[in-house]
C-alpha cells in the first residue's frame, strides 16, 4: 500500500519541489537515493527516486537511452537535485520519463535527501498504522522509535518487550521472518522464533518498515556527510579560507592546531571508471575512513577519478597506516600543514606521481629522487632548503662540502677555529633536521650545496 505522489508533495521536504510533468496520481511505495551510472537494478516499481544526477551521462543520445532504461523500471517519480551537476532537469530525459507517466520533479539542492527520505517514509508508515488498528499499541511504540531517532538495537528491545518474545535482526530468515526493505538491496530480516499470530505478523511487518527507515535514514545521513566532506576538503585544498570556520572544523573532527599531511591513494583502476571500479573505489575509501576513525582522526575524504584523498595527522605513522590498509598501492603524502595552510598540498603530492611502485612517498624525503628525475621544482626547493641558514652557517656547510667533508680542511679554508666550525655545523643539523653522519642526509646536503655553488658562479 502506498500514497499518491500528489499527497506527498505537501510534505515540508517536498513542498518546494517543482513538478515538470508525469502522473502525480502514481502510488509511491518507497523512496530511494540512487546515484549510480547504471541505476536500473536498484530501482523498483513505485519508488520515488532521489538523485543528484552525478552519474548521469551528459551526451544527449546516451542520456535518452539512460532515461528509457530508468522508465522501464516504473518508478513513481524521479526527483533531481538542482542546480549542481545539472542546472535543470535535462529536457531529453524529461520528455522520455514524463511520456512514460513517471512524475518528474526538480528539488532545490539545499534540501537534504535525508530529510526527504525521513518525511516520505514516515508518512508511508503512518498510512500503515491507520489501517491496522488491531496493533495500535505496537504502532505507537514504533512511531516513538522513529521520532526518537532510536537505533535498531533499541527498536528491537522495545518490540521484544511489547510482544513478550525476543525479536532479533538476522542476515538469513529463521522462524517467522520479515525482510527489512532497503530497495533492491537485501537489508536482513526481523526474526521471531517459532510461529506468529496475526497481530505479531502485522507488528513485524510494520517494524520492518521502521527498521528500513532507520537504516535508510542513517545511510542517507552518511551519504550527505560524505558529500559535504568532499566539498569541505576540496575547499581546504583550494585555499578557500571562508570555508574553514571553527564550527565546520569541529563538525569534521579537525584540530586547527594540529598538522596534517594530504594523503592520496592512487588505485590501479581503468579510466574512465566502470561500475566495478566505482565500487572498488568506494570499498577502499570506506576502509580508509574506518581506519582513520579507529585511530582517532578525522574521517575527511575526497574522491577524484582513481584517487582517494584524505588528511593524515602528522602524529600517525604513514608506513603503519598503509600497512593496516593492506593495500598494494602507492600512498603519496604532502608536507605536514595546519588545516588553514593546505593550499598547494595537492601540487606537492602530484609531483610524486612519477613514483608508481606500491609504498609510501613523503614529499620532503623525495627531493633528491625528484631532482634526479628532472623536477625543476625540486631544484629550487633544494636551494631554498638552505636559505634558512645564517651566512656563517651556510659558509661553514659549503666549505665542509668543498673540503670533502673534512672538518680540518674546512676550518683551515675559512680561517676559523675547529670548534667554531663544529658549532656552526651543529646549528646546520638543528635547523635542517639532519645528521651529518647519515649518508642519505649527507648526500642531500651535498647536492643542495653544489646546486647553490653552481648558481653563485653564474652570477
From TrEMBL:
<protein>
    <submittedName>
        <fullName>PucR family transcriptional regulator ligand-binding domain-containing protein</fullName>
    </submittedName>
</protein>
<comment type="similarity">
    <text>Belongs to the CdaR family.</text>
</comment>
<dbReference type="InterPro" id="IPR025736">
    <property type="entry name" value="PucR_C-HTH_dom"/>
</dbReference>
<dbReference type="Pfam" id="PF07905">
    <property type="entry name" value="PucR"/>
</dbReference>
<dbReference type="InterPro" id="IPR051448">
    <property type="entry name" value="CdaR-like_regulators"/>
</dbReference>
<dbReference type="InterPro" id="IPR042070">
    <property type="entry name" value="PucR_C-HTH_sf"/>
</dbReference>
<dbReference type="InterPro" id="IPR013324">
    <property type="entry name" value="RNA_pol_sigma_r3/r4-like"/>
</dbReference>
<dbReference type="Pfam" id="PF17853">
    <property type="entry name" value="GGDEF_2"/>
</dbReference>
<feature type="domain" description="PucR C-terminal helix-turn-helix">
    <location>
        <begin position="394"/>
        <end position="451"/>
    </location>
</feature>
<feature type="domain" description="Purine catabolism PurC-like">
    <location>
        <begin position="7"/>
        <end position="124"/>
    </location>
</feature>
<dbReference type="InterPro" id="IPR041522">
    <property type="entry name" value="CdaR_GGDEF"/>
</dbReference>
<dbReference type="Pfam" id="PF13556">
    <property type="entry name" value="HTH_30"/>
</dbReference>
<feature type="domain" description="CdaR GGDEF-like">
    <location>
        <begin position="239"/>
        <end position="348"/>
    </location>
</feature>
<dbReference type="InterPro" id="IPR012914">
    <property type="entry name" value="PucR_dom"/>
</dbReference>
Amino acid at each position: 500500500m502506498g500514497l499518491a505522489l500528489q499527497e506527498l508533495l505537501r510534505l515540508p521536504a517536498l513542498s518546494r519541489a517543482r513538478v515538470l510533468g508525469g502522473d502525480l496520481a502514481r502510488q509511491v511505495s518507497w523512496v530511494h537515493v540512487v546515484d549510480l551510472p547504471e541505476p536500473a537494478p536498484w530501482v523498483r516499481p513505485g519508488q520515488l527516486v532521489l538523485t543528484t544526477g552525478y552519474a548521469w551521462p551528459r551526451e544527449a543520445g546516451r542520456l535518452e537511452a539512460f532515461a528509457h532504461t530508468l522508465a522501464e523500471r516504473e518508478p513513481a517519480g524521479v526527483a533531481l537535485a538542482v542546480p549542481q551537476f545539472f542546472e535543470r532537469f535535462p529536457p531529453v530525459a524529461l520528455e522520455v520519463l514524463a511520456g512514460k507517466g513517471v512524475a518528474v520533479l526538480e528539488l532545490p539542492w539545499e534540501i537534504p535527501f535525508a530529510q526527504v527520505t525521513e518525511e516520505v517514509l514516515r508518512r508511508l508508515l503512518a498510512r500503515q498504522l491507520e489501517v491496522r488498528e488491531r496493533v495500535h499499541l505496537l504502532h505507537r511504540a514504533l512511531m516513538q522509535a522513529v521520532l526518537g531517532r532510536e537505533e535498531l538495537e533499541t527498536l528491537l528491545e522495545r518490540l521484544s518487550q511489547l510482544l513478550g518474545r525476543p525479536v532479533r535482526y538476522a542476515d538469513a530468515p529463521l522462524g517467522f521472518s520479515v525482510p527489512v526493505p532497503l530497495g533492491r538491496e537485501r537489508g536482513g530480516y526481523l526474526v521471531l522464533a517459532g510461529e506468529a499470530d496475526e497481530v505479531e505478523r502485522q507488528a513485524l511487518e510494520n517494524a520492518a518498515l521502521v527498521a528500513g527507515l532507520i537504516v535508510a535514514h542513517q545511510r542517507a545521513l552518511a551519504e550527505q556527510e560524505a558529500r559535504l566532506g568532499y566539498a569541505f576538503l576540496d575547499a581546504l585544498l583550494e585555499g578557500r579560507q571562508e570555508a574553514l570556520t571553527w564550527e565546520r572544523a569541529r563538525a569534521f573532527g579537525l584540530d586547527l592546531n594540529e598538522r596534517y599531511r594530504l594523503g592520496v591513494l592512487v588505485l590501479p583502476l581503468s579510466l574512465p571508471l566502470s561500475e566495478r571500479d566505482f565500487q572498488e573505489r568506494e570499498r577502499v575509501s570506506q576502509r580508509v575512513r574506518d581506519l582513520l576513525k579507529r585511530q582517532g582522526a578525522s574521517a575527511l575524504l575526497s574522491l577524484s577519478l582513481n584517487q582517494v584523498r584524505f588528511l593524515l595527522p602528522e602524529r600517525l605513522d604513514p608506513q603503519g597506516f598503509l600497512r593496516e590498509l593492506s593495500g598494494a598501492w602507492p600512498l603519496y603524502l604532502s608536507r605536514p600543514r595546519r588545516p588553514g595552510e593546505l593550499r598547494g598540498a595537492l601540487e606537492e603530492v602530484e609531483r610524486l606521481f612519477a613514483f608508481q611502485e606500491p609504498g609510501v612517498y613523503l614529499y620532503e624525503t623525495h627531493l633528491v629522487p625528484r631532482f634526479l628525475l628532472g623536477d625543476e621544482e625540486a631544484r629550487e626547493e633544494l636551494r631554498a632548503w638552505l636559505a634558512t641558514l645564517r651566512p656563517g652557517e651556510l659558509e661553514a656547510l659549503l666549505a665542509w662540502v668543498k673540503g670533502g667533508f673534512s672538518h680540518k680542511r674546512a676550518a683551515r679554508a675559512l680561517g676559523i677555529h675547529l670548534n667554531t666550525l663544529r658549532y656552526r655545523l651543529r646549528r646546520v643539523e638543528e635547523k635542517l633536521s639532519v645528521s651529518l653522519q647519515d649518508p642519505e642526509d649527507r648526500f642531500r646536503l651535498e647536492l643542495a650545496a653544489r646546486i647553490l655553488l653552481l648558481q653563485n658562479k653564474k652570477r
